[in-house]
Amino acid sequence: MAQQGWDVGILGATGMVGQQLVRRLAGHPWFRLTWLAASDRSAGRRFGDTRWLLADAMPDAVRDLVIERPIPGRAPHLVFSALDASAAVEIEPAFAAAGHVVVSNTRTHRLDADVPLLIPEVNADHLALIPLQRRRRAWPGAIVTNPNCSTVFLAMVLAACRRFGPRSALVTTLQAVSGAGYPGAASWDLLGNVVPFIDGEDEKIETETPKILGTLTAGGVVNHPVTISAQATRVPVVDGHTESISIGFDTTPSDADLAEAFTAFAGRPQALALPTAPRRPIVCRTEPDRPQPRLDVEQEDGMAVSVGRIRRCQVLDAKLVALGHNTVRGAAGAAILNAELLAAEGWLVDGVTPW
Ligand SMILES: NC(=O)c1ccc[n+]([C@@H]2O[C@H](COP(=O)([O-])OP(=O)(O)OC[C@H]3O[C@@H](n4cnc5c(N)ncnc54)[C@H](OP(=O)(O)O)[C@@H]3O)[C@@H](O)[C@H]2O)c1
User: What is the pTM of this model?
Assistant: First the structure.
């Protein structure tokens, strides 16, 4: 692996997730960001002249890149997509048809039967859907997706306790403002308030999770039988989605069993020592008032899910609180980890000599 590197591009580089991708790709040992694209509103502008939304300074290496239109063929082989979902409908398949590997944050193709919906610690084997995708769609490239941000955290929690047979889960989310992109919701709606509706979010959590936990067969993924009921809310927090989760199991674990399962949880990224793999994908907290977004969202550079308040549930079997960084583990960091897995497992065309 150390012998190769890959030039990469970003579709939707000017948005909330696009900028996290820019930030997190700076200095990456395998990927060098050389190409940026966004809508006609931004095309032709120098990236350094666009509005930068993050606290860390814009990386110097991208300041002079000129934002392009999202036209296939002009970009590097590997492109990250942080497009608005409606724009992704046509743009992502056009890139795959032109031979690009598209690592996407958008909801657009997540539930397609031949598209991996990937969390590398949970279902790295689902990358084997790529040959099926290429055959069915007759394209040389590929689309690989990461889940909705709230789905990632729930799915990692359920995967960690898979051996107890999770059969149902109730989840109420408290989602940060950065999850709505920029400029997102009006401050009038959010300040000092809780909004009990995020369009399409409940359904994404309920439908994506069984696919992620599903079993790969020759014909595709057979969904896991777990049933999910989700209620998403938006709260005035900057970064970090908190989730209140109750789980029913086939075999009820003790609180200690669950804590041990979360602490021991690891997968392919840790086995392969991928560059941005968290050492601990789930961090289990014992304090009675943790996890909290302000204190815990940056755990493992934003790549860990923090879990706490594990206890008996009087309705299902166990309940807990989970927290993850929505634009990192729930979006940009998830996509970069997916791309690292694609590179490590030989799904990318040969890269260039390291810079
Ligand atoms: N924010 C999160 O926590 C999060 C988490 C998981 C997944 N996602 C998903 O990731 C994607 C990006 O989210 P975001 O929060 O970064 O949204 P955002 O801030 O609204 O950014 C959207 C990006 O898409 C570009 N775009 C819009 N229409 C386009 C078009 N017709 N052609 C080319 N580019 C176009 C925008 O370019 P201009 O600046 O030029 O308009 C911008 O770069 C969405 O699909 C979202 O659902 C977001």
Answer: 0.97
